[in-house]
Design goal:
- Four copies of one chain form a homotetramer.
- Chain A is globular.
- The termini of chain A are far apart.
- In chain A, helix 3 packs across helix 7 and helix 5 packs antiparallel against helix 7.
- Helices cover 23% and strands 21% of the residues of chain A.
- The first copy, chain A, has one domain: 4-Layer Sandwich (Chorismate synthase, AroC fold).
- The first copy, chain A, has seven helices and 18 strands.
- Chains A, B, C, D: It holds the Pfam family Chorismate_synt.
- Chains A, B, C, D: One of its GO terms (molecular function) is FMN binding.
Chain lengths: 374, 374, 374, 374
């Protein structure tokens, strides 16, 4: 809803810089009596944590999350549950080699947010990217771990489906493979290839972009708020707000431009259980900004990491021409770590709309409707 | 910020259905003493108006806008200006052939919002798509006409750059051509081709998708609000909220996935006038969610119109399998009319961030900064 | 939530000036399938309408409300119901004697908003007070008529309990009397006195203040959102936003300062039906910002109308000392007309919190709780 | 704007319970380059801190605030300044005798929020009042310390003006006396009396209410956002959101009801310096919801502390009748500690409207206006 707050009813407000004392967020609007522990949040955070393979930044950060407020022990179940009050989640920064950045503190790195922050605010915490660092995204993952528990039956999964020009083969898609390689890749063959491919990128001091796909299943039909709170518009903002994202697609995405009406139309039939079946899912689970009950499918591109070893022309903050090389710890393909972040953001958007729908519409109508006169 | 309201400081709240008494919006938060007349808004509306060629819906609607509040005559200039109070803009509906829709009122048209609205709300104004009709976008254009005047020096232009699989040739791009053909196409050669191509689509009762590109020039550096009010995230939501949009790109967009870091980095040099020059614009004018002063470049895909003459399998609201054909007045390529709507939405987002920046940061720092000790 | 929008989930955005083309509002976030007609809204509006007795402004305005969007005929019931889309309510201005104000257009009337608007915006629609006119409150009454239907079992009633220094006798309080006199006074004896008292005020060209009390019954326990969305804080803002209001009280209000803890504590006992009974209501139905199920009781003071016949010292907009007398049509006690407005605002706040609670908490827990181990 | 967030552009989101790990807030939207240190915030916090005299709770809490994010060293000045990113302020809880509350954990204390929280959320952190504890107000004071620095020239001061039925003598009002007694009382004679008076209350295990007055000077004319973001409406909500507040007044407040129009009108004259002078301030510095440049004057009542030693009838959470006595550490007059909290809340509201005005109107018009034709 505002600068550092995300969401409308299920909201989180994020704080912290890469090299400050801590990062964290305040989750507000979460329903009461939802069981949650720091350990459960930690599981999600560990997926995103850097330093896990040679393909992500070597910053060694335990990213240990603490729940500082908003939970209490339920007398009946003995479980720790949410109380309806704000849940503060905090991750202390422990590996902050600020000295790594001192020689470039006055130079704007091409593709980095440094110049933009400086020209906006007149001051910039340059250490590790400060507030613009991807480190902030850890708190999104933490908030998302709670969001996932808000919507009964919701499953949100993401996978890397393209690295540079190389796409996965969808006929080999296996969600179980996503955890078996350091790329969150659902195609084990392509994952093997990515290993050597990214090694080459890394050793040359370069970086490469990627495409991530997110799929949300178990989303009730009817979520979304036309006209300016459309579910797809909120998802687009959520995914575009992730660092380095440059494009977002729902369903057929950009390719929808090439389709004819008769191909794009997702036809419908009644299922044996009285529910509605769609015969295809070009729409990606959303029509008119409202979920249809089909899986929600979104994709987004992540640009290559801007921190590279090749010298680039730039200027410094005092208006002098110069060159810059980034020697810090960085990811050759920052898109990899975007996978759990995307899951979290999608979970937060859906949780938010779940509460909004429950508030505005309540239990909702029962579909199909009775025939008039019946 | 919420369901039918768009924006944070420069906001508009939209109302109205396709076949109701009127559509319109309340523009709130607009600065005072900005000259504006209904005639000036009408110029923008006429661009979007249907019935202008055989390539858009034949609904004959003058779309005459009235300013119902929020303006007054300035004593000194004698001009009609905004007063800082809410500006209500209203367009009465005059050509509402509701009978066209009566035979399909109980059938869900594949690709339409009808089922989603029905399962959400339990009731749906099916006449002409009701609230989900593209007719609502007329009020966006009206609001955008005011937004354009809020930011001094701002120019926002859009063009259709792809229809079906056919792209424009960028070497022939001429903004002056956009007004010379019924497609808002900047490439006169391709525009000629689109004429016969779309005629074929139309005559076969089919429809086709499109890609639109929007370019905003004169956007001051420093607009945008990290981390969840990023300028690009707000643009993504704004464009995705337009009917039938399925993908949004900023700068290199989805293609950024294929780039290496050294190619993606927009290098910088000092200009002769002391300003900063970027040597390329892969970023599309936005870094870290903040405008850099470069042109902002966004693209989006529009799916083919769902209303087609080919029978499609569907169900009715009572759970029976059936087929449906849409015989109403419709666009063979609804993407064409998205061009002025996209300009309006981008203008609104920029106006909003212009006010937000002025509020939070004020006049802002002067860049380049003085050397320490100087 | 912002300048001309009131509410969070149940919201309305108001527009219009006293002497413009129309006033109205867009009600957004209203649940679907609530039966409502323009006639039902008109009943509420007629209570507030000026020109009904010699004690309110003689402006003759039918205040006929039209529903311009957001309703549709329910096929099953045949009733006109809300659809979940924005409901635009419009009242055209018909009696706008602008010439009445031309001789005072450059003079600031003490106690009026004219100077404040001018110094803020640099332009002011002075005709009849423009946007600052109490005429805007008609749209609140219209919105409130819908809000009342959102919460099942809700009753909101208000009454004038003090005029100048003269209070009603609470032992004679009879809600049925409120409609029997032109003052919305629940004490028939005092109402009789007010008649001659206010006649004296009116004839002398003066004006007088008043106190209004609002009582909401049938408010479910549990509404309200600590810490900054407290039900009482929202009520205070809602009532203070009514023109000319200078003080707001909940329960014992300002008098709570004089109480001792043992007197202020509302003791509790179990009712025969298993519900909780409070033995008193010093709290006015709200504890910790959350409704307790007791009647919500609020009071507010309305200052005397600033438009009086006695000349007052002032300055004009060009910085010259001068004097001013207001000769237009005005109320000797503007507090009278605040009665239906207050009911509407309280209904809107409660409807909003009802939806917020349903969204965030759902159906909620069942109290009393089972004993541990039971 | 929402549950645990206060403000629109200058916002803070609060978290924490009385007996949790920590309390704190995230201040968002604060302009950049404002010098601030933890020590400066601590000065304000120490005013509110309990345990300072025998008249406030004996809980011994250092209330040491840490700035966890959002500040950085300005290279030129060497000062620590805000960066425009969220400022997280944290106060760890150190004196949390939870055992004090174990014997009353199932009993609802009359006047406390316990029952309301329980019936809303189905779970309640009863230790020390949990989220409903006045302890949360410490973070408001911390946020207010920053807000004070946002508006140049702003001074906000508050004083206790009534305890029980005993009011201060305004002819003896001396702001310098406020810091010389444990009651924040501006009247040294009455302060002396309060000492023995409150001692009596305290020794009898009772408690007493109070009235606080807040005065803001140096508020620029033109702040406030009609119609639903009125400055006085926002102040009313802000003050009513403070624990135990039951009434709020602006200017003449409830007494405005007794005034005649000619007495209530604040007449105007031009000052020698070309500014506008008001000859009185019945309005409390606000007209039409907009500041006039006069001092803003607000008052509010605080009910007596609900925690008293006299046994009170109540029920437990399982629906049994019982009695309750509160033996914990508590304030005989909780209104005393509301003084610095009120200053903070008023500062936050004014800072917020200062940014809003700058955003929407910019530098604003120059008053008085030039004569037409001049």
């Amino acid at each position: 809803m505002s600068f550092n707050t995300f969401g409308r009813l299920f909201r989180f407000t994020s704080f912290g810089e890469s090299h400050g004392a801590a990062i964290g967020c305040v989750v507000d609007g979460c329903p009461p009596r939802i069981p949650i522990t720091a350990e459960e949040i930690q599981v999600e955070l560990d997926k995103r944590r850097p330093g896990q393979s040679r393909f992500t930044t070597q910053r060694q950060e335990p990213d240990a999350v603490k729940i500082m407020s908003g939970v209490f022990t339920d007398e009946v179940s003995g479980q720790q549950v949410t109380t309806g009050t704000p849940i503060m989640l905090m991750i202390e920064n422990v590996d902050q080699r600020s000295k790594d950045y001192s020689d470039i503190k006055d130079k704007y790195r091409p593709g980095h947010a440094g110049y933009a922050y400086d020209v906006k605010y007149g001051i910039y915490d340059y250490r590790g990217g400060g507030r613009a660092s991807a480190r902030e995204t850890a708190v999104r993952v933490a908030a998302g771990a709670i969001a996932r528990r808000v919507v009964p039956g919701l499953t949100v999964r993401a996978a890397l489906v393209q690295m540079g020009p190389h796409k996965v083969d969808r006929s080999r898609w296996d969600w179980n493979e996503v955890g078996n390689n350091p790329f969150f890749c659902p195609d084990p063959v392509q994952a093997k290839f990515f290993e050597s491919y990214l090694d080459g990128i890394r050793k040359s001091g370069s970086s490469i972009g990627a495409v991530i796909e997110v799929v949300a299943e178990g989303v009730p039909a009817g979520l979304g708020a036309p006209v300016y709170g459309k579910l797809d518009a909120d998802l687009a903002a959520a995914l575009m707000s992730i660092n380095a994202v440059k494009g977002v697609e729902i369903g057929d995405g950009m390719a929808a431009a090439e389709l004819r009406g008769e191909d794009n139309a997702d036809e419908m039939r009644m299922g044996n259980d009285g529910s509605l079946l769609f015969l295809s899912n070009h729409a990606g689970g959303i029509l008119g900004g409202i979920s249809t009950g089909q899986p929600i499918v979104a994709r987004f591109s992540v640009k290559p990491t801007s921190s590279i070893l090749t010298p680039r022309k730039t200027v410094d903050r005092y208006g002098n021409n110069t060159e810059v090389v980034t020697k810090g710890r960085h990811d050759p393909c920052v898109g990899i770590r975007a996978v759990p972040i995307a899951e979290a953001m999608v979970a937060c958007v859906i949780a938010d709309h779940y509460l909004l729908h429950r508030g505005q519409v309540g239990e909702g109508p029962s579909w199909p409707f009775p025939m008039p006169g019946a």
